[in-house]
Amino acid sequence: MRSVAASDAIVLDIEIAAHPSRVFTALTDPVQLAAWWSLDQEPVAWELDLRIGGKWRAVGRDASCGEWVLSGEILELDPPRALAYSWSEHSSSKTLEGTIVRYELTPVGSGTRLRLTHSEFRGAMAARQEYQGGWPGICRRLVAHLGGA
Asked: Which domain holds residue 25?
């Protein structure tokens, strides 16, 4: 996993030993999202209206943030190549509004290169720094869910 932090965006590139369609499904199916986001923490509940303009929401709890709610709207949907949505977080430790998360999936051999970009922090540097540290763990959960290391 390679992480690059631009001035505003967080960019992670990971290789996953699964076909892009399988990875895309893990990113968009509420049952699978709940399964891999819940690894090593309390259960996370997901709702997702998978269409441009559709709303999504995740509710969970962890040691670092306490109870949290993530939500947004689907901005880009190109199965199994790309998915982007607005991202807002509300928890006892922070409120973050209007950032963008984008997944780009590229076939590589028998697997997938996933590029995750979280952008539009607009000066919310403390939140950006927290996400810079948090996204690698989330990506490791996805890889583990799909049968990787």
From this structure: 2-145
